[in-house]
Every structure is written in C-alpha cells, then in structure tokens.
Amino acid sequence: MDSESLKIFCAVAAELSITQAALALGRVPSNVTTRIQQLESDVGVELFVRTGKRMALSSAGERFLDYARRLLALEEEARHVVTGGVSGGALRIGSMESTAASRLLPVLADYHTKHPNTRVDIITGPTRHLIEQVRTGTIDCAFVAVPLARKESLAESGIQQQLVWPEELVLLLPTSDAGARNAAEIRTRNLAAFALGCTYRHLAEEWLSIAESTDWKINVVGSYHAMVACVAAGSCVTLLPESVLKLTSAPPALRTLHVGHADTYLIWRQGFNVPAFQNLLARLSEER
C-alpha cells in the first residue's frame, strides 16, 4: 500500500468508474484496474462490488475510504510542516451554511491573495457533523455554533476552540403572525429548519418549546433561501442569523422576533498547527 494506490482508490471511489477515474488521473484504465486489484490483494478484502459494468464500494471499501483520505491528508500535512509551508499545503475547512454565506467570502478571498499556493477545500454541514469530522480528522477545522453544554466536552475530547463571530438570532414570521410579540402568540405551527445536528434548529426548538407541544411540525429544508421562501408563503417560521437574513430578499412585510445570540467558533484538533492553518488563524485575528 502506497500513497499513489490510495489516490487511485479515492478517485475510483469518487467516480465509481474505472474509465472516468483513469481520465481524471491521466492514466490508462488497465493501469487503474491493476492498481486497484493490487490494493485489494494487499488489504485482503474486496473494496468494490462489481455487477457487470457497474461498481460500488463494498462495506469494507466504505470504511477504508475514510482511512485512505486521512492517510493522504496526513502525508500532505507532514510534507507541508517539514518544508515550513513552502509547498503551500492544503486546508480542509468545514462550515455551517450560515457562516459560509455571510462571513467567509472576504476572509477566504483575502487568504487566497496572501497564500495562493495553499489549496483550500470547503464543505458545509450542521455543527454536530462538523465536530465529528474534526474529531476524526476528516477535516482540519470548522466554523460551528458550539452549544454551551458541549464546550467543556469538546476540550476533553481534544478539540480546541476560538471565538470568531457573535451572531444575533431572529425568528422570521409570516405576515399572519406579524403582530406576535413572543413565542406564545405565534399561531403558525411549522418550523423550517436544517436536519438534526444543527445548533440553530436546537435553539429554535427550545425557544418555541416544541418538545412540550403536540401540534408543532418541523419541515427539513436544505437552504436558508428556501426557509425564507417557506415563511413568505405563510407556511412556516424559521430561525436564522440576522447577518444571513440581510443577504436574502425577504419581503419587507415579514417581521422578526429577537431570539438571542449564538457565537460562531473555529474548532480544530489539539496539536494541529501546520503553517496553512496558522495563516488562517492570523487572518481571523483581524476579525476581532
């Protein structure tokens, strides 16, 4: 098993096609097939299930893929550290959708201007999933809204955190609830929110006392623009950062209730101090 075999495996896993992976890698298909067969022989299990011309990751292949990505990332991290950052390196950043939409654009644009040789990969997801990906090394760092109850447990699990942005949270109301002054006066009983694991969804459920009611329903929506559209249609309420609301084209007739605030933190594994990450910390220090 070597890094080149792992790269080929990851490419085939992404494409689920020898031909497409070979094209992406600049190799002939027969060479890719041979390397995959050698890797399977080395690890002692089939990494792919082949049915005619179709292929899919086996259960062992799905588990191996996570390790392959982490091994390749660790190799790149080691190379980046020993060269003192000369190679540019790579940085895998996770982010909540809200932070990606309202905060990251100027930060990452400036970062790229100062460090053009560093490859930055961005993924988005809910806080709970991002924390787990940082913990397992799938990503290097993440922008999350850390619930108060989890801050101590994060430190105990080897994750460091740094406050970056405070966020004011508002509940956006449909016009039928424009006169509501608190949660008890809201007549609309549908909440538009992201899937489980989103801190803002958790805060909305708490503020609206959804767990104590039998008539509330939660509509899982994939974007803030879709959430605002649901509110504009009169079918839902939704909770979102004020900074995100300002980016949408929400009708002026929609009113909001102030819910509170939730700080956005950057989290990373203790001991992770590659030059590319230190450069990000230096850029974020300008935000405070």
Automatic annotation (TrEMBL):
Domain HTH lysR-type: 1-58
DNA-binding as UniProt keyword: yes
Keywords attached to this entry: DNA-binding, Transcription, Transcription regulation
Secretion signal span: none
Annotated Gene3D superfamilies: Periplasmic binding protein-like II, Winged helix-like DNA-binding domain superfamily/Winged helix DNA-binding domain
Tagged with keyword NAD: no
Similarity section: Belongs to the LysR transcriptional regulatory family.
Protein name per its UniProtKB record: LysR substrate-binding domain-containing protein
